[in-house]
Amino acid sequence: MQINKKTNELAGSLLGELHSLSNHLSDTLIEQAARYLQRSSGQSPQLWETANLIGNYFNKNEVDEETLAALKNMINRIREVQGEAAEQSQDATTVVFGTSGWRGVIGRDFTLLNVHKVVRGIIEMMKTDTFLRETGLKDFDEVRQSGILLLRDNRFMGERFCRAARHELAAENIKIYDAGECPTGVGSAVLTELKAAGSINFTPSHNPMEYAGIKFNPADGGPADVHLTKIIEEKANAYMRAGVSFTPSSASYQQLLNKVNAAQMFRDFVEQKSPVFDMPRLRSWLSDNRNDLFILVDNMHGASRGYIQALLGPEVMDELTRAGAIRFIHTDEDFSFHGVKPEPGAANQEPLIEALRQSGRKFTLAVALDPDADRIRFADARMDMDMNRFAPVAYANLLARGLEGGIASTAPSSDFALEIAKREGQKVWETAVGFKHFRQALKSG
User: Fold this and answer.
1) How far, CA to CA in Å, does 427 sit from each of 222, 392, 417, 423, 436?
2) What's the N-to-C CA distance of the chain in angstroms?
3) Quick one: 153 exposed, middle or buried, by C-beta within 10 A (0-12, 13-18, 19+)?
4) Which residues form a coiled coil (predicted)?
5) Ranges assigned E (strand) in 169-277
């Protein structure tokens, strides 16, 4: 296969280039890369592993600009070859919807053909009585008319995978709403505003650069529960079986396509429907305190880019910017996430906190997001607060303001929020691992 030849040729080229830079790189890096690139007979070079190794190296070690450019070029070429593999591969996989969707490595199991199969599996699931009962839609014709929302994060090949989904939806004459790059939570709000039948979201959340993923949400914006994901798995894996004929759709979708301004819709949603955020009051406070304020937002090159600006509005953004009160970093297009795992962890938060300290401002806030912005970490100049601590504090604040409601918690979550709920006489649900298990608890009220 031509792609295997390219993979082997690239592996040899990369190893030669790393050796040529030996005066600028550590022996350990070159030795580790050699183990990934020089494989025994019958084994393919581990290109993505090499890309992560290189990215991790230049983030933890000082390298000169010329060497850095050479290392980044290596990652780009790895991505290009893996993209060709994703376009050309006919290899099947086993689809498993994990904590919240199906995730896979681009060019290995997450390929263009397999995306077609999974999206068709989602469509077949939407024809079932189980889905129709879940969403309150009377038949598949109503699914067609209600439409499906497509959204994605900034991942490599994201638009290409979305195009595959458009072709599959068009083959069934389903109306398509396309939000483009859009945070996962924003997509849930937009989905309910559109009154669409569901959403297909291309994101693997906070996973490293080599991953892509698909999440499906039914009409109410929450994650599909196990009853629906099991059907998707069954339908998609039926197309994966050896000997099963499958032709990807190439149906024209232009007449069914509706572009969505998700940022504006989200701003309207928050202003008109949120019981939590008083946006006029918040904007006024930010404006009044702009000279004592410093907010630093790490967009991690992801789908959150531009959404905070849209929420605050151009007038407030202009005031904050001129006062040096707000700054956004990692807003450029970078499919390798400047070489780090794109998660709002403590290590990625450290330079943000240091920048807050250096600002000398009275009020400080660091906000770090993952590529689809469903994981957020906050800090000020004195305290770093991870997500498992922030959620209980936010929950307690809502209860103190008179907004009541129970808590659904999955295994990795903090028990702190559960204890607050119990103390305040609120309902508590403890579920198995995965957002897909939240659905029944949330729907129960």
Assistant:
1) 19, 14, 11, 10, 19
2) 55
3) buried
4) none
5) 176-181, 198-202, 211-218, 257-259
CA 405 to chain centroid, in Å, comes to 27
pLDDT digits (tens, 9 = 90+) for 5-54: 899 999 999 999 999 999 999 999 999 999 999 976 678 899 999 999 99
Query: Under DSSP, is residue 410 helix (H, G, I), strand (E, B) or coil?
Result: strand
- Nearest to residue 148, comparing CAs of 130, 164, 126, 133? 126
Question: What angle separates helix 158-171 from helix 112-126, to the nearest 10 degrees?
Answer: 40
DSSP 203-247: --TT--TTEEEEEEEETTSSPP-HHHHHHHHHHHHHHHSTT----
User: Is the four-CA dihedral 337, 339, 342, 345 of positive or negative sign?
Assistant: negative
Distance CA 239, CA 245 (A): 8
351 contact partners, CB below 8 Å, separation of at least 6: none
Quick check: helix, strand or coil at residue 324? coil
Which stretches of 182-239 are assigned E, i.e. beta strand?
198-202, 211-218
Q: Tally Cβ neighbours within 10 Å of residue 165.
A: 26
CA of 9: how far to CAs of 45, 106, 107, 281, in Å?
10, 19, 17, 60
Contact (Cβ atoms closer than 8 angstroms) between residue 344 and residue 370: yes
Closest CA to 331 of 368, 308, 313, 305: 305
Compute the chain's Rg from CA coordinates.
Answer: 23
> Which tens digits make up the pLDDT trace of 68-106?
999 999 999 999 999 999 999 999 999 999 877 999 999
Structure tokens at 413: 């979550």
The span from the CA of 185 to the CA of 201, in Å, is 11
Strand partners, 363: 293
Measured from the Cβ of residue 15, the count of other Cβ atoms closer than 10 Å reads 18
For residues 12 and 31, what is the distance between their CA atoms, to the nearest angstrom?
14
